[in-house]
Design goal:
The chain is mainly alpha-helical. It contains 6 helices and 2 strands, in the order H-E-H-H-H-E-H-H. Helices cover 71% and strands 4% of the residues. It has a two-stranded parallel ribbon with strand order 1-2. Helix 4 crosses helix 6. The protein is elongated. It starts with a helix and ends with a helix.
């Protein structure tokens, strides 16, 4: 066997060896699979809040409280007006001074009562939004679980940027940039919209929760 033949055999063996090790390396390399597609649903929160039975019940409760507060304020105002007329018609003297002091005290009490009731109304309005948002969040989780959604997001793609000039308002540019910074969705297709499904989910759950309470006899 001549030298050229030996050299050819050596080169062939080297190539085979490289191929063997390369094959082993490929076999040991971890297989990276592409992430599965994400099932996404979008929700129009304005529509949800408008159609929820729980939100409507809160509105009735708050409007009732507002009406009672308004009637009480009117009654207190009439009382102060009558007291003012009474003081005006009284002759000067100790009795009139005492009545003026009484009127001032009632006015102060009425003002303090008004502030207290406004805080109470504000608290009720806050509790409404907290409770409704909690129901929306829980309803979205149940909807995602039952219909296999991986992600449900608020669709704010249709919100228009609105700016206005006002004495105490920030510059128009700052208003526009501030609103843009709060937006998250630039586009969402109709097929992704699960708003109506979410409304049905939440209203059904609310009805189911109310039924046991209504069935419980009062003592």
């Amino acid at each position: 066997m001549n030298r050229s033949t030996l050299a050819a055999l050596a080169i062939g063996a080297a190539i085979a060896s490289i191929g063997f090790f390369a094959g082993n390396a490929e076999a040991r390399r971890p297989v990276i699979l592409a992430a599965p597609p994400t099932a996404v649903g979008t929700v129009n929160m304005a529509v949800v809040f408008d159609k929820l039975a729980e939100a409507a019940e809160w509105d009735v409760k708050i409007k009732g409280l507002e009406a009672r507060v308004g009637e009480e304020l009117k009654a207190r105002k009439r009382e102060l007006e009558d007291l003012s007329k009474e003081v005006k018609d009284m002759p000067e003297g100790a009795a009139k001074e005492a009545k003026i002091d009484s009127a001032r005290l009632k006015q102060l009490q009425a003002e303090q009562w008004g502030v207290m009731k406004e805080l109470e109304l504000d608290r009720e309005r806050s509790l409404k939004w907290q409770a409704v948002y909690r129901s929306v969040r829980e309803g979205a989780a149940k909807l995602a679980e039952s219909e296999k959604y991986d992600l449900i997001v608020i669709d704010d793609s249709k919100i228009e940027i609105q700016v206005q000039r006002d004495k105490n308002a920030p510059p128009l540019e700052a208003q526009a940039k501030g609103q843009i910074s709060q937006l998250r969705v630039l586009y969402a297709g109709r097929m992704l919209d699960v708003t109506e499904k979410l409304v049905v989910q939440i209203n059904n759950a609310h009805t189911a929760n109310m039924a046991p309470a209504a069935a419980t006899p009062k003592r």
